[in-house]
Amino acid sequence: MGRIATGWQLAKRSLAVVRSDGSLSVLVILGWALVLTTVNLVLQALRERTGPLGGILLGAASVAWGLATFLVVPIVALTR
């Protein structure tokens, strides 16, 4: 039975897989992470500036955006 990889070991293994597999691009994942972060920051800033109804609507938009990116980013990264 093998050891469970933790911390830097896991990061090293993950990067080795990324480097060896041409279909998985680090730049694609980082690009999506940048888009995800930017949209989340904009939604949070808007939610703080709106009233209760706007907060609820923008909260729902945040949940929808989070779910969409959770489902789409792996597919985009793996199909590249």
Your description of this structure?
- 81% of the residues lie in helices and 0% in strands.
- By secondary structure, the chain is mostly helical.
- The chain has one domain (22-79).
- Residue share in helix: over 70%
Which radius of gyration do the C-alpha atoms yield?
Answer: 17 Å
> What's the total helix number?
3
Structural class: mainly alpha
Percentage of β-strand residues: under 5%
Domain count, please report it.
1
Task: Specify the biggest β-sheet.
Answer: none
Shape: elongated
Average pLDDT over all residues: 78
List segments where confidence is low: pLDDT < 50 over at least 5 consecutive residues.
none
Secondary structure elements and pairings:
Elements: H1 8-20, H2 26-49, H3 52-79
Helix pairs in contact: 2-3
Spell out the key features of this protein.
single chain, 80 residues, mainly alpha
Describe, in short, the structure shown:
The protein is mostly helical.
